[in-house]
Amino acid sequence: MNVKIEIAKSGLTDEGLRSIGDGLQQRDCPTKVLDVSFNQITDAGVFYIARGLAANRSLEVLKLNGTRLTDRGLDVVAKALQTNSTLRHLAIKGTQITAAGVASFSRSMALHNNTMEVLETSPHLPACKGLSSQPGGGQSGKGKSQGTSWVE
Q1: What whole-number percentage of the chain has pLDDT above 70?
Q2: How far apart are CA 8 and CA 80, in angstroms?
């Protein structure tokens, strides 16, 4: 079963992400795509998603475009991805992420994750080596057969 939760532009707040994060932790969670883009979400709300992501075994796409996500929140997501082996696509366009945040994420993925394939960022940010910046484009993540380095 492929479940998509698309609640972009819905007025969702950090507190609303608490129950979504709890749902992601459930063993039988069938969600493959979660899009919470363009809502009033900060790092505090992303913490709930990351907590669920750490235990989740189904989510493949997470879209956080147009939120108030900062480098700190991206770091929390990176830590969750140390134990998650299903997320392949993370979209963070139009957030407050800096080049330093992208570089830190890239280093973390190189050391602790081999399933991330796509990191969609704003055009002014550098691409992560070993990650495609668009779905279906460029290089893919550091899969077992690719041997791609993510470290800049």
Answers
A1: 82
A2: 22
